[in-house]
Design brief:
Strand order of the largest sheet: 14-11-10-19-18-17-16-15
CATH superfamily of the largest domain: Glycosidases
CATH class of the largest domain: Alpha Beta
Helix content: 25-40%
Bound molecules: ligand TNX
CATH architecture of the largest domain: Alpha-Beta Barrel
Distance between the termini: 18 Å
Number of strands: 19
Number of domains: 2
Length: about 525
Amino acid sequence: VGVALLAGATTAAAPVADAATPPLQAIVPVPVSAQAVTGADHALTANTKIYTQAGSAQAKAVGEYLAGIFRTSTGFPLPIADAPSGTPADGISLLLSGADTRVGDQGYQLNSTSASVILRATTAQGLFGGVQTLRQLLPGKIESPTVQQGPWTIPGANILDYPRFGYRGAMLDVARHFHPVATVKRYIDQLAQYKINNLHLHLADDQGWRIQIDSWPRLTTYGGSTQVGGGAGGYYTKAQYTEIVNYAASRFITVIPEIDMPGHTNAALASYAELNCNNTAPPLRTDTAVGYSSLCISKDITYTFVNDVIREVAALTPGPYFHLGGDEAQATSDADYRTFMNRVLPMVATAGKQVVGWHEIGKATLPATATPQFWGTTTSSTEVSNAVARGSKVILSPANKAYLDMKYNSSTPIGLSWAGYIEVQDAYNWNPGAYLSGVPESAVRGVESPLWTETVVTPANIDYLAFPRLPAHAELGWSPWSTHDWNTFRVRLGAQAPRWQAQGLDYYKSSQVPWE
Ligand code: TNX
Protein backbone atom coordinates (compact mmCIF):
# COMPACT_ATOMS: atom_id res chain seq x y z
CA VAL A 1 0.00 0.00 0.00
CA GLY A 2 2.87 2.37 0.78
CA VAL A 3 4.28 2.06 -2.73
CA ALA A 4 0.83 2.32 -4.25
CA LEU A 5 0.15 5.52 -2.34
CA LEU A 6 3.28 7.06 -3.80
CA ALA A 7 2.27 5.86 -7.25
CA GLY A 8 -1.15 7.38 -6.68
CA ALA A 9 0.36 10.85 -6.60
CA THR A 10 1.10 10.50 -10.30
CA THR A 11 -2.33 8.92 -10.93
CA ALA A 12 -0.77 5.63 -12.04
CA ALA A 13 -3.23 2.75 -12.03
CA ALA A 14 -2.97 0.55 -8.99
CA PRO A 15 -3.16 -3.22 -8.89
CA VAL A 16 -6.64 -4.52 -8.14
CA ALA A 17 -5.48 -5.83 -4.77
CA ASP A 18 -4.59 -2.35 -3.59
CA ALA A 19 -8.08 -1.32 -2.63
CA ALA A 20 -6.86 1.71 -0.69
CA THR A 21 -4.95 3.33 -3.54
CA PRO A 22 -5.90 6.80 -4.70
CA PRO A 23 -7.18 8.21 -6.93
CA LEU A 24 -9.77 5.50 -7.59
CA GLN A 25 -10.38 5.26 -3.87
CA ALA A 26 -10.73 9.03 -3.48
CA ILE A 27 -14.32 9.26 -4.75
CA VAL A 28 -17.04 10.87 -2.60
CA PRO A 29 -19.62 9.44 -2.26
CA VAL A 30 -17.83 6.10 -2.45
CA PRO A 31 -19.22 3.95 -5.29
CA VAL A 32 -20.99 0.64 -4.73
CA SER A 33 -18.01 -1.03 -6.37
CA ALA A 34 -14.85 0.27 -8.01
CA GLN A 35 -12.00 -1.88 -9.29
CA ALA A 36 -8.75 -0.59 -10.68
CA VAL A 37 -7.59 -2.02 -14.00
CA THR A 38 -3.82 -2.30 -14.05
CA GLY A 39 -1.92 -0.64 -16.85
CA ALA A 40 -5.05 0.79 -18.46
CA ASP A 41 -4.78 4.51 -17.78
CA HIS A 42 -6.59 6.75 -20.23
CA ALA A 43 -5.02 10.03 -21.28
CA LEU A 44 -7.20 13.00 -22.22
CA THR A 45 -5.54 14.83 -25.10
CA ALA A 46 -6.18 17.63 -27.56
CA ASN A 47 -7.68 14.94 -29.82
CA THR A 48 -10.17 13.50 -27.32
CA LYS A 49 -13.80 13.54 -28.43
CA ILE A 50 -16.95 13.17 -26.37
CA TYR A 51 -19.56 10.86 -27.91
CA THR A 52 -23.14 10.96 -26.67
CA GLN A 53 -26.05 8.60 -27.28
CA ALA A 54 -27.37 9.33 -30.77
CA GLY A 55 -30.87 10.78 -30.72
CA SER A 56 -30.82 11.81 -27.04
CA ALA A 57 -30.81 15.58 -26.52
CA GLN A 58 -30.53 14.93 -22.78
CA ALA A 59 -27.42 12.79 -23.12
CA LYS A 60 -25.95 15.45 -25.38
CA ALA A 61 -26.68 18.11 -22.75
CA VAL A 62 -24.79 16.03 -20.16
CA GLY A 63 -21.91 15.78 -22.66
CA GLU A 64 -21.93 19.57 -23.08
CA TYR A 65 -21.87 20.01 -19.30
CA LEU A 66 -18.89 17.67 -19.00
CA ALA A 67 -17.10 19.33 -21.92
CA GLY A 68 -17.68 22.74 -20.37
CA ILE A 69 -15.81 21.74 -17.22
CA PHE A 70 -12.98 19.85 -18.94
CA ARG A 71 -12.42 22.40 -21.74
CA THR A 72 -11.95 25.22 -19.24
CA SER A 73 -9.07 23.59 -17.38
CA THR A 74 -7.45 21.46 -20.12
CA GLY A 75 -7.76 23.95 -22.97
CA PHE A 76 -8.65 20.99 -25.23
CA PRO A 77 -11.48 21.45 -27.78
CA LEU A 78 -13.30 18.23 -26.72
CA PRO A 79 -15.86 18.28 -29.53
CA ILE A 80 -19.15 16.44 -29.07
CA ALA A 81 -20.44 13.95 -31.60
CA ASP A 82 -23.14 11.30 -31.83
CA ALA A 83 -21.89 7.95 -30.57
CA PRO A 84 -21.58 5.47 -33.43
CA SER A 85 -23.67 2.32 -33.13
CA GLY A 86 -21.77 -0.84 -32.32
CA THR A 87 -18.38 -0.76 -30.63
CA PRO A 88 -17.86 2.49 -28.69
CA ALA A 89 -15.29 4.81 -30.22
CA ASP A 90 -12.07 6.07 -28.66
CA GLY A 91 -12.55 8.96 -26.26
CA ILE A 92 -15.35 9.46 -23.75
CA SER A 93 -18.77 7.93 -24.49
CA LEU A 94 -22.02 8.69 -22.66
CA LEU A 95 -24.42 5.90 -23.59
CA LEU A 96 -28.01 5.09 -22.71
CA SER A 97 -27.68 1.43 -23.60
CA GLY A 98 -26.05 -1.67 -22.26
CA ALA A 99 -25.89 -0.66 -18.60
CA ASP A 100 -26.00 -3.30 -15.87
CA THR A 101 -29.65 -3.39 -14.70
CA ARG A 102 -28.52 -2.74 -11.13
CA VAL A 103 -27.82 0.91 -12.01
CA GLY A 104 -31.57 1.62 -11.86
CA ASP A 105 -32.72 5.10 -12.84
CA GLN A 106 -30.01 7.10 -11.04
CA GLY A 107 -26.92 4.91 -11.22
CA TYR A 108 -24.26 4.35 -13.87
CA GLN A 109 -21.44 2.13 -14.97
CA LEU A 110 -18.01 3.52 -15.81
CA ASN A 111 -15.40 1.49 -17.65
CA SER A 112 -12.13 3.17 -18.47
CA THR A 113 -9.23 1.66 -20.37
CA SER A 114 -6.38 3.14 -22.33
CA ALA A 115 -8.62 3.00 -25.43
CA SER A 116 -11.82 4.58 -24.12
CA VAL A 117 -13.88 5.84 -21.22
CA ILE A 118 -17.43 4.55 -21.37
CA LEU A 119 -20.26 5.70 -19.15
CA ARG A 120 -23.52 3.75 -19.38
CA ALA A 121 -26.83 4.44 -17.68
CA THR A 122 -30.53 4.00 -18.30
CA THR A 123 -31.24 7.74 -17.92
CA ALA A 124 -29.47 11.03 -18.53
CA GLN A 125 -29.62 11.54 -14.75
CA GLY A 126 -27.56 8.38 -14.37
CA LEU A 127 -25.02 9.64 -16.90
CA PHE A 128 -24.85 12.92 -15.00
CA GLY A 129 -24.00 11.03 -11.81
CA GLY A 130 -21.30 9.15 -13.68
CA VAL A 131 -19.87 12.44 -14.93
CA GLN A 132 -19.48 13.56 -11.30
CA THR A 133 -17.43 10.45 -10.63
CA LEU A 134 -15.38 10.99 -13.77
CA ARG A 135 -14.45 14.51 -12.58
CA GLN A 136 -13.06 12.97 -9.41
CA LEU A 137 -10.92 10.52 -11.38
CA LEU A 138 -8.86 13.45 -12.68
CA PRO A 139 -6.52 15.65 -10.67
CA GLY A 140 -8.21 18.43 -8.68
CA LYS A 141 -6.96 21.09 -11.07
CA ILE A 142 -9.49 19.76 -13.63
CA GLU A 143 -11.85 22.09 -11.70
CA SER A 144 -9.73 25.14 -12.36
CA PRO A 145 -11.31 28.20 -14.05
CA THR A 146 -8.12 28.68 -16.12
CA VAL A 147 -6.09 26.42 -18.39
CA GLN A 148 -3.69 24.18 -16.47
CA GLN A 149 -0.83 21.92 -17.47
CA GLY A 150 -1.64 18.19 -17.78
CA PRO A 151 -1.09 15.29 -17.87
CA TRP A 152 -4.80 14.48 -17.64
CA THR A 153 -4.91 10.80 -16.82
CA ILE A 154 -8.01 8.80 -15.94
CA PRO A 155 -7.12 5.56 -14.15
CA GLY A 156 -8.21 2.28 -15.67
CA ALA A 157 -11.33 1.30 -13.74
CA ASN A 158 -14.56 -0.67 -13.66
CA ILE A 159 -17.15 1.11 -11.54
CA LEU A 160 -20.75 0.12 -10.84
CA ASP A 161 -22.70 2.63 -8.80
CA TYR A 162 -26.23 3.51 -7.71
CA PRO A 163 -27.78 5.23 -4.68
CA ARG A 164 -28.90 3.78 -1.36
CA PHE A 165 -31.71 6.38 -1.12
CA GLY A 166 -33.48 7.99 -4.06
CA TYR A 167 -33.69 11.36 -2.30
CA ARG A 168 -30.58 13.27 -1.35
CA GLY A 169 -31.31 16.86 -0.43
CA ALA A 170 -29.97 20.16 0.75
CA MET A 171 -32.01 23.05 2.13
CA LEU A 172 -31.05 26.68 1.83
CA ASP A 173 -32.84 29.29 3.98
CA VAL A 174 -33.17 32.35 1.73
CA ALA A 175 -35.54 34.03 4.20
CA ARG A 176 -33.33 34.88 7.20
CA HIS A 177 -30.71 36.27 4.85
CA PHE A 178 -31.66 36.63 1.22
CA HIS A 179 -29.33 34.85 -1.21
CA PRO A 180 -29.42 36.10 -4.79
CA VAL A 181 -29.85 33.89 -7.86
CA ALA A 182 -26.09 33.70 -8.55
CA THR A 183 -25.40 32.38 -5.05
CA VAL A 184 -28.09 29.72 -5.38
CA LYS A 185 -26.71 28.62 -8.76
CA ARG A 186 -23.24 28.35 -7.26
CA TYR A 187 -24.62 26.16 -4.48
CA ILE A 188 -26.50 24.03 -7.03
CA ASP A 189 -23.22 23.34 -8.82
CA GLN A 190 -21.60 22.34 -5.54
CA LEU A 191 -24.48 20.02 -4.64
CA ALA A 192 -24.45 18.33 -8.03
CA GLN A 193 -20.82 17.32 -7.57
CA TYR A 194 -21.80 15.12 -4.66
CA LYS A 195 -24.88 13.62 -6.36
CA ILE A 196 -27.41 15.62 -4.32
CA ASN A 197 -30.63 15.64 -6.34
CA ASN A 198 -33.02 17.89 -4.40
CA LEU A 199 -32.73 21.55 -3.38
CA HIS A 200 -35.27 22.64 -0.79
CA LEU A 201 -35.62 26.43 -0.68
CA HIS A 202 -37.01 27.92 2.53
CA LEU A 203 -38.77 30.85 0.83
CA ALA A 204 -40.64 32.57 3.66
CA ASP A 205 -40.14 33.11 7.35
CA ASP A 206 -40.69 35.73 10.04
CA GLN A 207 -37.93 37.96 8.69
CA GLY A 208 -38.77 37.92 5.00
CA TRP A 209 -40.91 36.71 2.10
CA ARG A 210 -38.75 35.86 -0.92
CA ILE A 211 -41.00 34.73 -3.79
CA GLN A 212 -43.26 36.94 -5.89
CA ILE A 213 -46.97 36.17 -5.45
CA ASP A 214 -49.08 38.12 -7.96
CA SER A 215 -52.30 37.99 -5.94
CA TRP A 216 -50.61 39.28 -2.76
CA PRO A 217 -47.91 41.69 -4.02
CA ARG A 218 -47.04 43.30 -0.68
CA LEU A 219 -45.58 39.97 0.50
CA THR A 220 -42.44 40.81 -1.43
CA THR A 221 -42.50 44.60 -1.89
CA TYR A 222 -42.93 45.08 1.87
CA GLY A 223 -42.50 41.63 3.45
CA GLY A 224 -39.31 41.00 1.47
CA SER A 225 -37.76 44.38 2.17
CA THR A 226 -35.55 43.42 5.08
CA GLN A 227 -33.73 40.47 6.70
CA VAL A 228 -31.98 39.37 9.88
CA GLY A 229 -29.88 42.24 11.15
CA GLY A 230 -31.91 44.87 9.28
CA GLY A 231 -30.27 44.69 5.83
CA ALA A 232 -32.14 45.23 2.60
CA GLY A 233 -33.46 41.69 2.06
CA GLY A 234 -34.76 40.92 -1.41
CA TYR A 235 -36.90 38.44 -3.29
CA TYR A 236 -37.08 36.39 -6.47
CA THR A 237 -39.40 37.49 -9.24
CA LYS A 238 -41.22 34.59 -10.83
CA ALA A 239 -38.81 34.78 -13.77
CA GLN A 240 -35.80 34.62 -11.44
CA TYR A 241 -37.27 31.71 -9.51
CA THR A 242 -37.89 29.88 -12.77
CA GLU A 243 -34.28 30.57 -13.72
CA ILE A 244 -33.20 28.79 -10.52
CA VAL A 245 -35.59 25.88 -11.14
CA ASN A 246 -34.32 25.46 -14.70
CA TYR A 247 -30.68 25.72 -13.71
CA ALA A 248 -31.24 23.07 -11.04
CA ALA A 249 -33.02 20.85 -13.57
CA SER A 250 -30.00 21.09 -15.88
CA ARG A 251 -28.05 19.53 -12.98
CA PHE A 252 -30.78 16.92 -12.34
CA ILE A 253 -31.74 18.68 -9.12
CA THR A 254 -35.41 19.11 -8.21
CA VAL A 255 -36.34 22.34 -6.42
CA ILE A 256 -38.74 21.93 -3.49
CA PRO A 257 -40.35 25.22 -2.49
CA GLU A 258 -41.18 25.73 1.18
CA ILE A 259 -43.69 28.25 2.42
CA ASP A 260 -43.60 27.82 6.19
CA MET A 261 -47.02 27.96 7.95
CA PRO A 262 -48.93 28.55 10.20
CA GLY A 263 -45.94 29.78 12.28
CA HIS A 264 -42.85 31.55 10.93
CA THR A 265 -45.22 33.93 9.15
CA ASN A 266 -44.44 37.37 10.54
CA ALA A 267 -43.39 38.73 7.13
CA ALA A 268 -46.84 37.88 5.72
CA LEU A 269 -48.68 39.11 8.82
CA ALA A 270 -46.75 42.40 8.64
CA SER A 271 -47.63 42.80 4.96
CA TYR A 272 -51.41 42.27 5.29
CA ALA A 273 -53.29 43.40 8.40
CA GLU A 274 -56.30 41.26 7.47
CA LEU A 275 -54.30 38.06 8.00
CA ASN A 276 -54.08 38.88 11.73
CA CYS A 277 -56.86 37.88 14.15
CA ASN A 278 -56.79 41.44 15.56
CA ASN A 279 -56.66 43.05 12.09
CA THR A 280 -53.44 44.82 13.05
CA ALA A 281 -50.23 44.30 11.14
CA PRO A 282 -47.22 43.73 13.40
CA PRO A 283 -43.91 45.42 12.53
CA LEU A 284 -41.38 43.70 10.29
CA ARG A 285 -38.88 41.68 12.35
CA THR A 286 -35.15 41.41 11.87
CA ASP A 287 -34.25 39.51 15.06
CA THR A 288 -33.86 35.73 15.26
CA ALA A 289 -36.60 34.77 17.73
CA VAL A 290 -38.83 31.82 16.74
CA GLY A 291 -42.28 30.58 17.71
CA TYR A 292 -44.16 33.86 18.14
CA SER A 293 -46.15 34.23 14.88
CA SER A 294 -49.24 32.44 13.58
CA LEU A 295 -51.66 32.89 10.74
CA CYS A 296 -55.21 33.46 12.05
CA ILE A 297 -56.70 29.95 12.07
CA SER A 298 -60.33 31.09 12.44
CA LYS A 299 -60.46 33.52 9.52
CA ASP A 300 -61.58 32.46 6.05
CA ILE A 301 -59.22 34.94 4.40
CA THR A 302 -56.33 32.92 5.82
CA TYR A 303 -57.32 30.00 3.59
CA THR A 304 -57.88 32.23 0.55
CA PHE A 305 -54.36 33.53 1.11
CA VAL A 306 -52.79 30.10 1.62
CA ASN A 307 -54.60 28.66 -1.38
CA ASP A 308 -53.46 31.54 -3.61
CA VAL A 309 -49.85 31.10 -2.48
CA ILE A 310 -49.87 27.32 -2.94
CA ARG A 311 -51.46 27.64 -6.38
CA GLU A 312 -48.99 30.28 -7.61
CA VAL A 313 -45.88 28.56 -6.22
CA ALA A 314 -47.00 25.11 -7.40
CA ALA A 315 -47.42 26.57 -10.89
CA LEU A 316 -43.70 27.46 -10.84
CA THR A 317 -42.77 23.96 -9.65
CA PRO A 318 -42.19 21.09 -12.08
CA GLY A 319 -41.15 18.77 -9.23
CA PRO A 320 -43.61 16.63 -7.26
CA TYR A 321 -43.25 18.24 -3.82
CA PHE A 322 -44.54 21.29 -1.96
CA HIS A 323 -43.13 21.90 1.54
CA LEU A 324 -45.62 23.37 4.02
CA GLY A 325 -43.16 23.97 6.86
CA GLY A 326 -45.30 23.49 9.95
CA ASP A 327 -42.43 23.70 12.45
CA GLU A 328 -42.29 25.50 15.79
CA ALA A 329 -45.93 26.59 15.72
CA GLN A 330 -45.75 27.56 19.37
CA ALA A 331 -48.17 30.45 18.87
CA THR A 332 -50.82 28.03 17.51
CA SER A 333 -52.65 25.55 19.77
CA ASP A 334 -52.47 21.87 18.79
CA ALA A 335 -56.20 21.87 18.02
CA ASP A 336 -55.83 24.96 15.82
CA TYR A 337 -52.77 23.40 14.15
CA ARG A 338 -54.80 20.34 13.18
CA THR A 339 -57.73 22.48 12.00
CA PHE A 340 -55.35 24.48 9.85
CA MET A 341 -53.56 21.48 8.33
CA ASN A 342 -56.85 19.66 7.68
CA ARG A 343 -57.89 22.57 5.48
CA VAL A 344 -54.51 23.17 3.85
CA LEU A 345 -53.33 19.61 3.09
CA PRO A 346 -56.01 19.13 0.39
CA MET A 347 -55.01 22.42 -1.25
CA VAL A 348 -51.57 20.99 -1.97
CA ALA A 349 -53.16 17.90 -3.54
CA THR A 350 -55.45 20.11 -5.64
CA ALA A 351 -52.38 21.99 -6.84
CA GLY A 352 -51.01 18.62 -8.01
CA LYS A 353 -48.25 18.31 -5.42
CA GLN A 354 -47.33 16.00 -2.56
CA VAL A 355 -46.81 17.48 0.89
CA VAL A 356 -43.51 17.64 2.70
CA GLY A 357 -43.47 19.21 6.17
CA TRP A 358 -41.20 19.47 9.20
CA HIS A 359 -42.02 16.49 11.39
CA GLU A 360 -44.54 18.36 13.59
CA ILE A 361 -46.86 18.09 10.59
CA GLY A 362 -47.40 14.50 11.77
CA LYS A 363 -49.67 15.99 14.48
CA ALA A 364 -52.24 16.20 11.67
CA THR A 365 -53.66 13.16 9.90
CA LEU A 366 -51.47 12.92 6.83
CA PRO A 367 -52.11 11.17 3.53
CA ALA A 368 -49.59 8.38 2.83
CA THR A 369 -48.10 10.56 0.08
CA ALA A 370 -47.00 13.15 2.67
CA THR A 371 -43.37 13.19 3.81
CA PRO A 372 -42.45 14.29 7.32
CA GLN A 373 -38.94 15.73 7.59
CA PHE A 374 -37.42 14.86 10.96
CA TRP A 375 -35.31 17.64 12.48
CA GLY A 376 -35.25 16.62 16.15
CA THR A 377 -32.27 15.77 18.34
CA THR A 378 -33.69 12.53 19.75
CA THR A 379 -33.99 9.16 18.01
CA SER A 380 -37.72 8.72 18.31
CA SER A 381 -40.66 10.82 17.21
CA THR A 382 -44.32 9.91 17.64
CA GLU A 383 -45.27 12.32 14.84
CA VAL A 384 -42.92 10.48 12.48
CA SER A 385 -43.72 6.92 13.55
CA ASN A 386 -47.46 7.65 13.33
CA ALA A 387 -47.02 8.95 9.80
CA VAL A 388 -44.90 5.93 8.88
CA ALA A 389 -47.59 3.62 10.28
CA ARG A 390 -50.01 5.28 7.82
CA GLY A 391 -47.64 4.66 4.93
CA SER A 392 -45.51 7.81 4.78
CA LYS A 393 -41.83 7.87 3.95
CA VAL A 394 -39.50 10.14 5.89
CA ILE A 395 -36.69 12.59 5.15
CA LEU A 396 -34.02 12.59 7.85
CA SER A 397 -32.40 15.85 8.95
CA PRO A 398 -31.58 15.26 12.62
CA ALA A 399 -30.45 18.67 13.87
CA ASN A 400 -27.48 17.32 15.86
CA LYS A 401 -26.11 15.48 12.80
CA ALA A 402 -27.45 17.09 9.64
CA TYR A 403 -27.81 20.81 10.43
CA LEU A 404 -25.18 22.67 8.45
CA ASP A 405 -25.80 25.84 10.48
CA MET A 406 -24.46 24.28 13.70
CA LYS A 407 -20.92 25.32 14.62
CA TYR A 408 -18.14 22.75 14.26
CA ASN A 409 -16.78 23.66 17.69
CA SER A 410 -16.77 26.56 20.14
CA SER A 411 -14.42 28.64 18.01
CA THR A 412 -16.39 28.43 14.75
CA PRO A 413 -16.94 32.11 13.82
CA ILE A 414 -20.46 31.71 12.39
CA GLY A 415 -23.33 29.33 13.03
CA LEU A 416 -25.53 28.40 15.97
CA SER A 417 -25.11 25.72 18.63
CA TRP A 418 -28.56 24.95 20.06
CA ALA A 419 -28.34 21.35 18.75
CA GLY A 420 -24.69 21.03 19.77
CA TYR A 421 -21.43 21.28 17.87
CA ILE A 422 -21.15 19.08 14.79
CA GLU A 423 -17.63 18.14 13.76
CA VAL A 424 -17.11 16.29 10.48
CA GLN A 425 -17.04 12.89 12.16
CA ASP A 426 -20.32 13.64 13.96
CA ALA A 427 -21.90 14.63 10.65
CA TYR A 428 -20.76 11.32 9.14
CA ASN A 429 -21.27 8.82 11.95
CA TRP A 430 -24.95 7.93 11.91
CA ASN A 431 -27.02 5.48 9.93
CA PRO A 432 -30.09 6.99 8.27
CA GLY A 433 -31.51 3.52 7.67
CA ALA A 434 -31.61 2.71 11.39
CA TYR A 435 -31.75 6.10 13.06
CA LEU A 436 -35.30 6.62 14.25
CA SER A 437 -37.15 3.99 16.23
CA GLY A 438 -40.14 2.69 14.29
CA VAL A 439 -38.64 3.91 11.00
CA PRO A 440 -37.04 1.06 9.04
CA GLU A 441 -34.80 1.77 6.07
CA SER A 442 -37.69 0.98 3.73
CA ALA A 443 -39.58 3.98 5.21
CA VAL A 444 -36.71 6.41 4.62
CA ARG A 445 -36.98 8.49 1.46
CA GLY A 446 -33.57 9.98 2.09
CA VAL A 447 -31.29 12.43 3.84
CA GLU A 448 -31.30 16.24 3.72
CA SER A 449 -28.82 18.82 5.02
CA PRO A 450 -30.55 22.06 6.06
CA LEU A 451 -28.63 25.33 6.09
CA TRP A 452 -30.46 27.95 8.13
CA THR A 453 -29.03 31.39 7.54
CA GLU A 454 -29.47 33.51 10.65
CA THR A 455 -25.65 33.89 10.66
CA VAL A 456 -24.97 33.11 7.01
CA VAL A 457 -24.59 36.14 4.75
CA THR A 458 -22.06 35.50 1.96
CA PRO A 459 -21.28 32.65 -0.44
CA ALA A 460 -18.07 32.11 1.56
CA ASN A 461 -20.20 31.64 4.69
CA ILE A 462 -22.22 28.96 2.87
CA ASP A 463 -19.04 27.21 1.71
CA TYR A 464 -17.58 27.20 5.19
CA LEU A 465 -20.55 25.57 6.89
CA ALA A 466 -21.49 23.19 4.07
CA PHE A 467 -17.98 21.93 3.34
CA PRO A 468 -16.93 19.39 4.34
CA ARG A 469 -20.12 18.28 6.13
CA LEU A 470 -22.36 18.29 3.07
CA PRO A 471 -20.24 15.64 1.28
CA ALA A 472 -20.43 13.54 4.47
CA HIS A 473 -24.23 13.64 4.33
CA ALA A 474 -24.15 13.05 0.57
CA GLU A 475 -22.24 9.83 1.18
CA LEU A 476 -24.76 8.75 3.84
CA GLY A 477 -27.52 9.24 1.28
CA TRP A 478 -25.77 7.58 -1.65
CA SER A 479 -23.32 4.88 -0.58
CA PRO A 480 -24.23 1.44 0.77
CA TRP A 481 -23.99 1.17 4.55
CA SER A 482 -21.50 -1.68 4.11
CA THR A 483 -18.97 0.88 2.82
CA HIS A 484 -19.41 3.21 5.79
CA ASP A 485 -16.04 3.76 7.43
CA TRP A 486 -14.78 6.97 8.99
CA ASN A 487 -11.11 6.12 8.52
CA THR A 488 -11.37 5.67 4.78
CA PHE A 489 -13.93 8.43 4.41
CA ARG A 490 -11.68 11.05 6.00
CA VAL A 491 -8.93 10.20 3.53
CA ARG A 492 -11.31 10.42 0.58
CA LEU A 493 -12.65 13.70 1.94
CA GLY A 494 -9.14 15.08 2.31
CA ALA A 495 -8.54 14.26 -1.35
CA GLN A 496 -11.33 16.70 -2.30
CA ALA A 497 -9.33 19.71 -1.10
CA PRO A 498 -7.42 20.39 -4.36
CA ARG A 499 -10.78 20.41 -6.19
CA TRP A 500 -12.27 22.88 -3.76
CA GLN A 501 -9.19 25.08 -3.96
CA ALA A 502 -9.42 25.07 -7.77
CA GLN A 503 -13.10 26.02 -7.50
CA GLY A 504 -12.49 28.81 -5.00
CA LEU A 505 -14.60 26.97 -2.44
CA ASP A 506 -13.84 28.21 1.06
CA TYR A 507 -14.10 25.03 3.16
CA TYR A 508 -13.51 24.46 6.88
CA LYS A 509 -10.12 22.81 7.36
CA SER A 510 -11.14 20.41 10.10
CA SER A 511 -8.22 18.87 11.98
CA GLN A 512 -10.08 15.54 11.77
CA VAL A 513 -9.35 15.32 8.04
CA PRO A 514 -5.94 14.65 6.39
CA TRP A 515 -6.21 17.40 3.77
CA GLU A 516 -4.21 17.00 0.58
C1 TNX B 1 -35.01 25.64 14.12
S1 TNX B 1 -35.43 23.44 12.43
C2 TNX B 1 -35.84 26.04 13.07
C3 TNX B 1 -35.45 27.20 12.26
C4 TNX B 1 -34.17 27.83 12.73
C5 TNX B 1 -33.20 26.75 13.08
C6 TNX B 1 -31.85 27.27 13.44
C7 TNX B 1 -36.73 24.09 12.15
C8 TNX B 1 -37.65 23.26 11.42
N1 TNX B 1 -36.91 25.32 12.62
O1 TNX B 1 -36.50 28.14 12.25
O2 TNX B 1 -33.68 28.62 11.69
O3 TNX B 1 -33.71 26.02 14.16
O4 TNX B 1 -30.96 26.21 13.61
